[in-house]
Amino acid sequence: MSSRPATPDDNPCHHVASAVIVVIGASGDLAKKKTFPALFGLFRNGLLPERVRIIGYARSKLSQEDFRERITSEKLKTAPQDQLQQFLSQCEYISGQYDSQEDFKRLHSLIQDHERDLEKGLHGEVNRDHIRVFYMATPPSVFVPVARSIKSGAYDPDVKNRIVIEKPFGRDLASCRQFLSEFSSLFREEEIYRIDHYLGKEMVKNMPIIRFANIFFEAVWNHEYIDNVQITFKEAFGTQGRGGYFDEYGVIRDVMQNHMIQMLCVMAMEKPASLHADDVRTAKADVLRHIPPIKIEDVILGQYVGDTDGSEPGYTDDKTVPEGSITPTYASLVLFINNDRWRGVPIIMKAGKAMDEAKVEVRVQFKDVPEPHYQHISRNELIARVGPTEAVYLKIMNKRPGLFSEPVISELDLSYRRRYSNAKIPEAYEALLLEVLNGDQSHFLREDELIAAWEIFTPLLHELERKHVQPKPYAYGSRGPEGADDFLQKYGYKRRQQAYDWPDDLGRPVKEVAKEYAEKNKL
């Protein structure tokens, strides 16, 4: 896998002469909480093109002042006011319907006005390196109508057009295929940037480097030495009044079929032929093609109920959730990768809301030491912690210090807040928008990846719905439903044999830090 050191030319500002960025759905929560803060983050770090304009488009009737107030989230309000005002001065708003060709022609006219201003001094022509970015921060029900309106009303074949779209990409294989067919009939694959924002997370982007830039990992990265892999996605909060939206999808569709399967692909893929986007995505797609559909007997489902003291409500207590809903808020499932490297290794996925802690991690558990000379030996584990704070650590057995000869669990610890205390870890959306500007699709989804992922999950989802499988109850703030730990152990996962509490870089237990992080950020 070829690589090269970064150079000043890697900055997208050196590739893109100018850009007009259109945020469609600009009055919604996604735009306010994620898209505009990410754009501002790039702006304040000098990573937007020097000549740039940002246009918000939505159905809401807003004045320019109201729009700028709407997109100024709490995060932006704490920024230096001179920088914020300079950023907002480059933002403009226009209202229109999502399915109106005439409204999008008005948008096109506004874009052209900005492009003429941006290209002053360049002979009045649109530079060949100018780009238009259309970021669709809209509900999935209008993805295709908006795409049609862009193509018929605001698309310019003489510049580089980039269309950014977020999940969900359908509800099952058939709806995904239909969506992809309609969308790809309008735009070329190189113009489409399908976001799974977990691919923009710092630790997920670090996994290939851990794998392929450290020779000792490759030697043991196979079924001869790895017993199981566990991917965990735990949230310490419930639906918080958004249960109506969540109920349409459930936890499997919400995070497993996309975020978690993508983390698996990055962790398990073979070395790509190069770092080119298509080579990386081909390596990920190859992993998916070797995973058979998940069997219903390899799944356990749960739904949270109120906690024991009654301070937190249950899932169905949310007034936006349909009465009698059996939508799972927790799932543990097991899948297998049937290739030479991973054959027979259980891949255990566990995801849930309203659990005991906030944690997203990939845990590789190695096999037992053969015939150890010591008792109470725990397995080695490599953990890549994606959140709430980034860390990589390797759990090893070590002699207890002092006048002892017994082995104890310890860790080789790379906690980012300690090792890279001065580094600014960008938000995932910030990192991905930078790649959109730079024309790099490495961390965006290709059609065949989406189809292959749905082929794995669709039979299971349809069977669960057809059989009306009832999820098991579990208390808000617990580790999950009864039997969940036994389920994991059935597939070979071993919890530590010794008492062990891994401290973070401040010397406090990780669970304590995770809880504090969740409360602070109202997760």
TrEMBL record:
GO CC annotations on file: cytosol
The reactions it catalyses are: D-glucose 6-phosphate + NADP(+) = 6-phospho-D-glucono-1,5-lactone + NADPH + H(+)
Q: What is its EC number?
A: 1.1.1.49
Residue stretches making up the Glucose-6-phosphate dehydrogenase C-terminal domain: 209-494
- Pathway(s) of this molecule: Carbohydrate degradation; pentose phosphate pathway; D-ribulose 5-phosphate from D-glucose 6-phosphate (oxidative stage): step 1/3
User: Where is the Glucose-6-phosphate dehydrogenase NAD-binding domain positioned along the sequence?
Assistant: 22-206
- What is this protein's function? Catalyzes the rate-limiting step of the oxidative pentose-phosphate pathway, which represents a route for the dissimilation of carbohydrates besides glycolysis.
This protein is called: Glucose-6-phosphate 1-dehydrogenase
